[in-house]
Amino acid sequence: MAAPFPHHLFVTLSIILSVLACSIVSNAQLSPNFYAKTCPNLQAIVLSAMKQAVTKEPRMGASILRLFFHDCFVNGCDGSILLDDTSTFTGEKSAGPNQNSARGFEVIDSIKSNVEAACNATVSCADILALAARDGVVQLGGPSWTVGLGRRDARTASQTAANNQIPSPFSDLSTLTSRFAAKGLNARDLTALSGAHTIGQAQCQFFRNRVYNETNIDANFATSRKANCPSTGGNANLSPLETLTPARFDNNYYRDLVAKRGLLHSDQVLFNGGSQDALVRSYSANSVSFFSDFAAAMVKMGNISPLTGTSGEIRKNCRVVN
C-alpha cells in the first residue's frame, strides 16, 4: 500500500502553486479588483450604459466588441484606437481596417463621462472598452467572463501597425493563424474568437468577391447576399455576418460555416477541409464549449501587452492624450 502523502509537503506544494498562479496573473498586472476602492461603481456604470446602447441598437454590441479586438491587436489593449487624428498626429481610426467601419466611439465617450462624474481621472479608456465589450456580448445572450483591470491608456497610436497587424476579411487560414499567433493566441483561440461574427454586420466591399467568385458557398446564400451587394457600387451596403439569429450571440455562426454560409472569406476558411473543421463542427453542435472557449480567449486577448503601473496615462477624454 502506498504511503500517505506527507501533509507538510502538500501544504508546501499548495503554497508554491498559489505563488506561481499569482506570478502568472501579476505578470500581466491586471486584477478584476483594481478599482474596488477607487471606483467601486465602475462595473455598474458601464453595464447600465451598455444595456441602454444595445437595447437602442443591438448591432452596437458587435461594434464595441470589434473596437476592443482592433485595439488589442495594435500595440496591446491600450485604448489607442480611440484617439482622433489631429493636424500633427495620425492615429488608427484612419487605418484601412477601421476607416468608415470602426464605430461605437460615442458610446465609449458617454460611458467615460459617466465614469468621470463618479470617479474622475481614475479609470482608463482601455479598461472601459474592455468592460463594455464583455457587457455587450452578455446583453446579446453570450457568455460572461471576469475582466482583469488596471490597463493604462497609450499616449500614441500606430496607423501602420493597424494596417499591418489587424487580420483582413480576405485572409486565408495560414495568415489568420500567424496573425493570431503573433499576439499569443493559438488556432483554437482564433476559431473561438471568430465566433464573434455570430453578431454584427459586414460591408459589401468585404464579401463581394466571396459571393460572386468563390465556389465553397451555398448557392442560395450567395444569391440572397448579391441582392444587397451589386457587382459594382454599394460598397457600404450591409449584410448580417450570420444568417439565423444575427442579433443574438450564440453558436449559429458555426452552423452557417458547416452549411457553407460563411459571409467573409476569412470566416469560411475555418471550415474548408483544413485544421479547424473538427472544432467548427464541435462548436456548431455544442454552444457550451463555444461559450467557454470564447470567454477564455477574450481574457487572453484582453491581456495582450497592457500598459500598467506608471506607463501611459489615464486619459480624461478618450479621444485625445492629456
From TrEMBL:
The catalysed reaction is: 2 a phenolic donor + H2O2 = 2 a phenolic radical donor + 2 H2O
Q: E.C. number, please?
A: 1.11.1.7
Q: Which residues bind substrate?
A: 167
Q: Which UniProt keywords apply?
A: Calcium, Disulfide bond, Glycoprotein, Heme, Hydrogen peroxide, Iron, Metal-binding, Oxidoreductase, Peroxidase, Secreted, Signal
Entry-linked PROSITE patterns = PEROXIDASE_1 (PS00435), PEROXIDASE_2 (PS00436), PEROXIDASE_4 (PS50873)
Plant heme peroxidase family profile domain location is 29-322
Q: Which GO terms describe its cellular component?
A: extracellular region
User: Does this UniProt record's set of keywords contain Signal?
Assistant: yes
Q: Which family does it belong to?
A: Belongs to the peroxidase family. Classical plant (class III) peroxidase subfamily. Belongs to the peroxidase family. Ascorbate peroxidase subfamily.
Name of protein: Peroxidase
What is the organism of origin for this protein?
Arachis hypogaea
